[in-house]
Amino acid sequence: MYERVMSVPCGRKLVFFLIASISLFVDTVTGHRHDENQAITDNEKEVKIGVLLPMTGYWPIGKTSASAITIAVDRINEDQTLLPGYNMTFLWNDSMCLAAEGLNQAVEFRIAGVDAIIGDGCDIICGPAAILASSWNLPMVSWGCESPTLSEKSIYQTFARTVGSFSKMGKLFLSVFRYFKWKSIGILASTESIWQLAMSGLMKDFLENDIEIRYLHTLSPGHVLVTEREEFKSTLLHAKETARSKWTQK
């Protein structure tokens, strides 16, 4: 279990999502809201949250976003209209974006007596960890998990998230294509389940709207950036030449 770290580069874009996440379970954790004018006293109650972030592994996004947690919590504690009579603290653990490690850290949070969990950003962790959280009647809010199965409230009863399912991103891309009058596309997708799901959704929406899919390729992400792997450079170049769309100016 790690302590607060201020030296980690700040992922400021996550501040909004963290504050939004916290707002989703504030009422659940506190049980009721105090009068907004109530002053914070020395006897204020503690609201302790556990934050799951992949700090190591193949997607160490925590290295560029961990300090956003500090900013979000400090802002909430400074604004007495949000949690009057309460003081928010947090613990954060490295999930490594691995199911086994994520579950282990979720159990550590349970032992530490957290009131709620924020995280993870990896679907492979959110699924089983959210089931545990539900069995503990513990609120869990993800800032990055997109799997549509997580919307099944009969299973994930205490789970919520601040992002939508990637399976529905087709409508966004269709709007962009219509604006620029593009008629074709190339798709490169990871073999990971979430990106295969996103690819399937995109293909369905594009084909139903007469968008030609000129290039389709799946690749295994591994633990190295695709742009740094020689075997994929030719794939990217081929995709560029095959799938480049011609668009009509207004």
Quickly list its features.
single chain, 250 residues, alpha/beta, Rossmann fold, 2 domains, two-stranded parallel sheet, 7 helices, 7 strands, elongated, disordered N terminus, disordered C terminus, ANP_Clearance_Receptor, membrane, signaling receptor activity
Beta-strand proportion: 15-25%
Question: How does CATH name the architecture of the largest domain?
Answer: 3-Layer(aba) Sandwich
Number of domains: 2
Distance between the termini: 56 Å
Going by CATH, the homologous superfamily of the largest domain would be: Response regulator
**How many β-strand runs?**
7
Please tell me what the overall shape is: elongated
What number is the mean pLDDT? 77
Low-confidence regions: 1-13, 30-41, 245-250
Strand order of the largest sheet: 2-1-3-4-5
Give an overview in words.
The chain has 250 residues and is an alpha/beta fold. The protein folds into two domains: 45-161, Rossmann fold (3-Layer(aba) Sandwich); 166-241, 3-Layer(aba) Sandwich (Rossmann fold). α1 crosses α2 (66-78), α3 (99-112) packs parallel to α4 (123-135) and α5 crosses α6 (193-208). The protein has seven helices and seven strands; from the N terminus they run αβαβαβαββαβαβα. The protein has helices at residues 13-30, 66-78, 99-112, 123-135, 170-180, 193-208, 230-243, and strands spanning 45-53, 86-94, 116-118, 140-142, 159-161, 184-190, 212-219. It has a five-stranded parallel beta sheet. It has a two-stranded parallel ribbon with strand order 6-7. Mean pLDDT is 77; it is low at 1-13, 30-41 and 245-250. Pfam families: ANF_receptor (PF01094). It is found in: Membrane.
